[in-house]
Write a structure and sequence with these properties.
The protein is mainly α and 268 residues long. The protein folds into two domains: 19-186, no CATH class; 187-268, Arc Repressor Mutant, subunit A. 54% of the residues lie in helices and 2% in strands. The protein has ten helices and two strands, in the order H-H-H-H-H-H-E-E-H-H-H-H. The chain has helices spanning 35-47, 59-68, 76-96, 103-122, 128-132, 137-156, 189-205, 212-223, 238-242, 246-267, and strands spanning 162-164, 180-182. The chain has a two-stranded antiparallel sheet with strand order 1-2. Helix 1 (35-47) crosses helix 2 (59-68) and helix 7 packs across helix 10 (246-267). The longest helix has 22 residues, at 246-267. The radius of gyration is 20 Å and the shape is globular. It starts with 34 loop residues before the first helix and ends with a helix. 31% of the residues are buried. Mean pLDDT is 76; it is low at 1-9, 157-187 and 191-195.
Length: 268
Amino acid sequence: MSQPTPPSSEADPPLGDPPHLTHHYRDGRRYVRRPEVRDEIRQVLAAGPDTWDAPHLRSETLVHLVRKFRGSADSMATYTKLVDQLGRRVARIVGDNSKGIDPPTRDELIDSILNRVIVLILSPTQPKKGEYLEVSFRKVVQGLALNAVDAVFLRREECPVVGLVDDYGDEDRDGQDPRVTVTDGRPPPDELAQLAETRRLVQGSLEAITDPRHREAFLLRYGRDWPLTDQDPTVPTLCNRFKRKERQIRNWLQIALDQMRESLGENL
């Protein structure tokens, strides 16, 4: 006797379609890409990397392509363009959600959030938030941005903390803004778990940073939260530590991140 056909939501995707997402909403429904995202992924994969027009692809499509082609040496140039384009999207979203933050601090937030997004995409465990980037890229990045802005204001003690609920158990319906709540400033359990995963990935790829100065700058910036510059002369900064201008330090950090991303892609 033949086996019954599984429900369409659980069956293998049609030939040429991307694999189903694996995480679920609280009501048990599986995460599903929007039809236009699924169709675009199918089209770009069928066309080949040389034809991809990254600036005009949907953010969720870019996430899927970065995840899929992360260790492919044959498409490294295209892969870099995809990551660069994601960086532009992150910068735009962070800028829209960081009003009242001075430009240097906003630039630091953009770098930090982009690094977090890349880690979410490349994580071998494919965490819930990382997979949701293929459902609603804007919602995830907006959540990271608002939480980061809250932390800045909390440190400065300038205003109460009002942040995004970091919960991907409810669907982002009809483009509505995510829910907002007053928080106590402490990272939620899932945020702590992701930070632990980020640290694990970082530890495993630090050896890929070839210049010891770049490695030290990366550890001080992302491990000890050293700022690049600070108006308070008593605060230790990267520029003072290495006797270099801010632009040079940013270049070092970018080189370190690029080498780590390449290492992660080759070993995942």
